[in-house]
Amino acid sequence: MKEKNNEATFNALFSLLVDSEVLQKEKHIKPDPKAQTNEIINKKLIERVKDKVHTNIRFTDKVIPSLYFNYEMECIGLNGVFTGAKSINFNQTEQTIQKEVSHYYALSTMLENQHGKYGKQNNFYLISDEPDGIGTKEHQFWVKLKKGKKFKLIHSEEADIVAQKIEETNARTFLKIEL
Fold it and tell me: Which letter does DSSP use for residue 7 in this model?
């Protein structure tokens, strides 16, 4: 009789033939905070607006010819003003965070200029949980962005605020290029 190969079968054989303690240790691994954040954003934002606006979009120079970097956003839509969101993990190096934020600033400005929406009250959100280590450069940068005007910095648990704004403004897809 042929037995199906599945995880339970593999684990049983591994425990029997190799080492039963290795599998026991794996069960106690803490969940990945980044994966949890992505799951929250997907549930509270992406699933709610995926039929209205561009979601999990990758910008390249094919979308914006003057773009000199590739960049991904969780969502963006347009109806009179832009409504868009980008999530950034602030528990990274200062340089990585600064690059992500700078690219978001540049991309949002390019979009505003390209579509004649510069100077309007666009709704660009930065989704980020407060970083560990109060007083670190990463935390200080997060605090500065929280006070800034270009982006509204919100916690991942508040991702539904972006979905509400998309629904309020009736934002829709606007890019005609194959992404």
Answer: H
